[in-house]
Amino acid sequence: MKLFKIIIGFFLLNGFFVFGQQTIKHKVIKGDTFYGIAKKYDLKITDIYSFNPEVKDKPLPLSYELQLPNKKYIEEANTLSHAKTHTISKGDTFYKISKTYNITIQNLTDWNPNISSSELKIGYVLQLKPLRQTEAPKVLVVKEVPIKEEVVEEEDQEEFSNDIIHVVKKKETLYGIAIKNKTTVNNLKVLNPEITGNLPLGYHLVIKKGDQEDEVINENENENDIVEVEPSSSTVLENANILIDRASGFIGVPYRYGGTTKKGMDCSGLMIEVFKEIDLILPRSSGSQAAFGTKIKRKQAQKGDLIFFATTRRNSISHVGMITEVHNNEIKFIHSSTSSGVIISSLNEPYYIKRFKQVTRVLN
Q: pTM of this prediction?
């Protein structure tokens, strides 16, 4: 009985291996004919000739190893290549889908402008071919949710357009915030007229109005530290794809200070877990990670690079993400935000462009 199970297991394993390959090997035995082999593998004789032109119109030599097309593999490949749409299922990412259908992530982005790679909901229908002008993309319509701004990570206050802002925490009241910030409840109500009832959790409460707008932080701040880098090799870019696929699996995980698991993680913890995928161990804090690699110009940024922000009043690096896409001067990055957990954001968003600090390359 045990021997029987082993034999069955061998044939099953062999079957999976065969169907996972583009070709099948057949060793010619006594009595074999082109017709018989074609019949056995559900092929045409011309299929055998096309893969083995050296035996065409010649007798089949005994023990000769023929290369035959794997019909199942070809049928599956043809089916995938002709597929026009893909319905999102659990665990799908843009990277995984692009590999399955042999298209690029950029193709998916261009052909599905209404769907963000960070918002792949089960049941969404992705376009796998460019639409004609008369066609409209088939998208599952969902209620729009206002984009939440990043909440500070190291302090409960921040400077935004030179306003002093307090991010409301659980059970906080206007009276308690007023006492803490040496102001009055009446002043807070004047500065925040839209507040009429209980304070919403995470609300950005203005404590004091500033006199002028923030100065935009850009990569030229310390230009002497920035270097020109050579174009990355195909191996580096492949590693970047691996990292993006790994990071995408954490989308939706909540923010948790000091966390590095799917129960919750902070921004630097997310980077540590993602880069473990390629056996690269990063330092624990975002500030240390910024010094770990090579600081490069923003215009040279590519997927897999780390991007850093100053999100506190101290104007020092306090937040990190990993670049997932660079297209038409727009940089998108995946990160763990205190307000939304692990998400993909754009550097073009006002909050991030004002706090952008640097891009660092750690893949080389």
A: 0.44
